[in-house]
Structure formats: structure tokens, C-alpha cells
Amino acid sequence: MPDLPFIARARSFADRIAFRTPEVSHTYQQLLDRSSQIAVELLQDQSELQEARVALLVAPGFEYTASQWAIWRAGGMKLPICLSATESEWEYALTDSQVGVVIADASNAPKIASLCQKIGVRLVNVSGINGNAVKALPDIDVNRRAMILYTSGTTSKPKGVVTTHANIQAQIESLVQAWEWSAEDRIPMFLPLHHIHGIINITGCALWSGAVVEPFARFEMNAILERVRDDAYTLFMAVPTIYVKLIQALEAACESDRAAIVAGFKKMRLMVSGSAALPASVHQQWTALTGQELLERYGMTEIGMAISNLYRGERRPGSVGAPLPGVEVRLKAENGPVITAEDEPGEIQVRGATVFQAYWNRPEATAETFEDGWFRTGDMAVLERGYYRIMGRLSVDIIKSGGYKLSALEIEAALLEHPLIAECAVIGLPDDTWGEAVTAAVVLKSSTLELAALREWCKGRLSVYKIPQRLKVVTELPRNAMGKVTKPAVKALF
Ligand code: MLC
Ligand code: AMP
Questions:
Q1: How many domains does the chain contain in total?
Q2: Is residue 106 one of the residues assigned to a domain?
């Protein structure tokens, strides 16, 4: 059987640079060699991992991707976990997915060692792997399951989204074609590598194309802007919050700095925004500042990217564009017909090779989310002059903040552990920087509660982006005649 396609492609780019940092560059050949070295360590005396789950807690860059490729070459399923998650969030993902091994780098291994011991999982410190053992790696079919990504939804706990190598390939090929990726491209990578924006759209497409990735540990604005000034990049992909922060930084910069940075942005061949709604005003401000027309696209963990403005064609502020190559999109009225006319809102449903297989170990949730073979996104949209415009979500319990999808129910469950909180309702309120701000209305058992104290209490219990930004103490939560909390009425309290 031939190599997995991404390996075969990497061989054809062997001498090109895959990852570049100020300190060191690594070629595609080095990625191939390092991934085979790590794969041998993962396999030990097995001939292949047979879809065993291997979690990845490694900083973005060469070692992260070498580990990812190692898992895939050894026949395992990759489960990337959030570097800044709390221990209980890690424990949930590791136990729910029945992980057998965690790969961590030297700086992260100590943080997860006691958890691994507690739940009986093997911890591999990737920084310590330097063996020369050579072993034939197994043949892996593209229809084998490759990855689990945990995503929040309308249930309190996140669900594992399972994709095959073939799904991942379809997601990447669609974008490579639509946005004309080539081996001449150079892109910064500063998004977290436990979500598809960073994994598929940036790193996946770049390495499929033989391009150069410059990894950053996180969104390090000054370091990234220095490189933009140097004309280091042809492409740039980010969430709307980052464009808001960049606009603020450019407006605050002195004229000569601003001119130098803007010149770097101007030269890029494409700048993309996605993962959350890009306000038309931000789109227009960015064009006014840099001359670049942002390309907005729409996607989801379960389906990769589905809809995009055109690379060569109209980029309409406030719209997400037309279906990407290989992706079928329809709008469906709730319990009603498929919508064929323009200007009538409906739920976005998606079909095609890019669509995931199943939620890990949740057959009912998987079945519920498909309708006649179409994936139900839960997002409402309308078709206007050939382009889709997103109108919002069907569920009020899903919040998008800084590009992260959050479950209001998960945050409520955590807040109810607070000794003073008797009842609570969590909502997302519009926010200029974060898109939506996590907001809580609480009924107290006694005493008072200040936002600062609540935020302090949440640290270590919830990831930073899930911690409420706004708080209101109320005597009772608004409820309907059935006694159910009505979230629109909760929003009206603020
Ligand atoms: C962080 N902070 C927040 C926050 N996140 N405040 C309000 N709301 C939030 N969501 C606060 C912190 O508490 C901290 O406060 C301060 O902001 C700085 O935190 P930080 O983590 O250092 O922020 P920063 O590095 O600037 O991060 C912002 C960001 C990050 C936008 C770069 O959130 C990010 O990388 N988002 C991208 C997520 C992503 O990749 N999503 C894609 C999912 S896939 P203090 O008080 O301590 O200073 C998907 C599919 C698709 O959606 O279509 O792509
Ligand atoms: P995730 O589950 O983290 O992959 O987030 C997917 C969700 O992000 C989608 O269901 C949408 O609600 C939202 N999303 C992604 N891109 C856009 C966009 N361009 N405009 C509005 N919402 C978006």
C-alpha cells in the first residue's frame, strides 16, 4: 500500500523548509525523519496502534507536527488537547476518549504527569526521544480514523468529533484549491493547535502544499508584527478578535511604524478571517487601514470549511460567500422544506467528503445531528445575491468568544459549584473585541458576590476564555410558564 498522501507529498518537498523560527529551520525531510523516530517509540513492540487514541500536549511547531505525523504513521488517532486547559478539562477529554498515551514536550510533561499517573495513562516526553531504532511503519488506509477534536455544543460536556484521513484530506484539498495555496507560500501560525482553524486551515494546508510555517506559542502581537514588517508572509489567517486587536495596535502606533507594518500586510496575497462573525465595520476598517480586503469564510469542527468568499471575485463584508469546492450546502426551514429561494432564512446543512464520521461514543448525538444524510450545523443563514449571510445560531446555549466555541451549560455547571451561587444563567452578550462576552446572571444563597472574586474562584476550574466577563446578581431568574429560564429575558437584564 502507498504512503498516506500527506507523507508522499512531504517526500516531494524533502529539501524545502517546513517550519522556521528565529532560532532554527526544519525541512520536510526532517519532519519525515523525526516523525518516524517518534512513531517507533509509540509502537514499542506493536506492529501498529490500531486507532488507539494518543493525546498531544506539545507547543506549536516542528515537534508538534512531527508527533502528529508519528501518531498517524503508527496507526493511532490524534487527540490534541488545549495547552492552557485546567486539569479537570484534560481529565475529561482523556477519559472520555479512552486515551492510552499522552505525548508531551519537556515544558508540558510535568504539568500532566500526575494526571497520567492517576488515570493510568502512559506519558511520553517527546523531547527525550532520540533513539535510532528503525522499524517498518505500518500501511494505513485513508479511511481509517485519524483525529478526535473536542468541541462544545448544546450538551454540557464537549463531544469528540471523529474524522478520518480521507475527511482531513478533503478539508485540506478544498481550501488549497479555493485559495490557491502553493509551495511559495509563507504563513504565521499563532492559533491554538487543538482546533481546526490552526490544524487544518493553516498548518494542514501549508504542509500539504510544501509551504513554510512560522509557529508562535500564542498570538504574540509584537513578534508577529515585526515579521509582517519584514515581508515574511504571503498569507495570514486569524479570528475576528485578532483583527480587532491589530486595528487597535496599528491605530496606536507612531506613523513610521504603522507605515512599515501596513506595507507588509499590503504585500500579502491573501488575508482570511473566520471562526466567528467578522463585523462588516471591522472588514471595512481593515481595508481602509491596509488596503487588504479580508476574505471571510465559514466552517465548523465537524465539517471543516464549508462556505467562503472568493479568492478571485467578490469579498462581501458581512457575508461568508458561496460553497467551497467539494462541499454541498443547503438551507432548511425547521421541520419544513429545503429552501430554494433567496432571502428566506434556514439552517445551514452540509454534505460531502469533508463531513466528519461521528461523535466519539455518542451514536444518538451523531444520529440527531444528521437529517437525510446532511449535517445540521445549528447555524441560521440566508442566501442573498448568491452569497450566504450568517444570521445566528439556533441554540442560545452556544457562545463564541475570541473564536472559541463555548457551552453556556458547561459554564453554568461549573458556577453552580460556587458555595454562594444558588442558581445561574450564562449567556453571550455582544462585545466589540471578543465577539461575545461570557456573562452570568446569578441568584445567591446569601451575602454578595463581586465579579473579581468570582473570576478568581473560576481560575483553575475553567479555561480563561470561559470565565465570565460580566456578572449580575438578581433575586430571581426570568422563567416562562413551564418554569424554564428564558435566556432572551436574561439578556434583557444587562
Ligand atoms: C482571553 N481573555 C478574554 C478571553 N480570552 N477575555 C474575554 N473573553 C475572552 N474570550 C482575557 C484573558 O483572561 C486575559 O485577561 C487577557 O484576555 C489576555 O488573555 P490571552 O489568552 O493572553 O489573550 P490573547 O492571547 O490575546 O488571546 C486572544 C486570542 C485567543 C483571540 C488570540 O483567544 C485565540 O487564539 N483565539 C482563537 C481560538 C481559535 O482558534 N478558534 C478556532 C476554533 S475552530 P487578563 O485580565 O489576565 O489580562 C472553528 C472553526 C472555524 O471555530 O470556522 O474556524
Ligand atoms: P467550532 O465548533 O469551534 O468549530 O465553531 C464553529 C462555529 O463557529 C460555527 O458553527 C459558527 O457558529 C461559527 N463560525 C465559524 N465561522 C464563522 C463566520 N465566518 N461567521 C459566523 N460564524 C462563524
A1: 2
A2: yes
Percent of the chain as helix, strand, coil, to the nearest 5: 35, 30, 40
CATH number where 114 lies = 3.40.50.980
pLDDT at 336: 86
Report which of 267, 331, 343, 262 is spatially closest to residue 298, judged by C-alpha positions.
331
The pLDDT score that the predictor gives to residue 471 is 98
Establish whether residue 185 lines the binding site of ligand 2, counting it when its CB lies within 6 angstroms of any ligand atom: no
- Domain finish residue from 108, 140, 172: 140
Name which of 119, 137, 209 is nearest 172 in CA terms: 209
Ligand nearest to the CA of 159: 2
CB crowding 226-240: b at 16 or more within 10 Å, else e: ebbbeebbbbbbbbb
Per-residue pLDDT reduced to its tens digit, 351-398:
999 999 999 999 999 999 999 999 999 999 999 999 999 999 999 999
Q: Which of 179, 173, 206, 142 is nearest to 13 (CA)?
A: 206
Residue type, 206: A
Ligand 1 atom 8: residue of nearest CA: 465
pLDDT score recorded for residue 1: 63
List the CATH number of the domain containing 425. 3.30.300.30
Asked whether residue 219 is domain-assigned, the answer is no
| pLDDT tens-digit map of 201-220 | 999 999 999 999 999 999 99
Tell me if 391 sits within 8 A of 382, measured CB to CB. Answer: yes
Least Cα distance to 219 among 200, 199, 243 occurs for: 243
Does 194 map to a domain?
no
Report the C-alpha gap between 14 and 4 in whole angstroms. 16
Specify the pTM: 0.97
Span from the CA of 143 to the centroid of ligand 2 (angstroms)? 26
Distance 109 CA to ligand 1 centre (A): 23
Q: How far is the CA of 408 from the centre of ligand 1 (A)?
A: 17
CA 299 / ligand 2 centre spacing (Å): 6
User: What's the gap in Å between 55 CA and the centre of ligand 1?
Assistant: 22
Q: Which of 400, 404, 407, 410 to mutate to test the pocket of ligand 2 (most atoms within 8 A of CB)?
A: 400
Q: Is 453 in the pocket of ligand 1 (CB under 6 A)?
A: no
* Structural domain boundaries enclosing 35: 5-140
Secondary structure (H, E, C), 354-376: CCCCEECCCHHHHHHCEECCEEE
431 lines ligand 1 (CB under 6 A): no
Return the residue whose CA atom lies nearest to atom 3 of ligand 2. Answer: 405
Strands 404-407 and 212-215: unpaired
Single out the residue in 140, 168, 198 at which a domain terminates: 140
Whether 419 is covered by a domain: the verdict is yes
Ligand number with the minimum distance to the CA of 249: 1
Ligand nearest to the CA of 390: 2
Closest ligand 2 atom to Cα of 301: 4
Asked whether 320 lines ligand 2 (CB < 6 A), one says yes
* Ligand 2 center–CA 312 separation, angstroms: 23
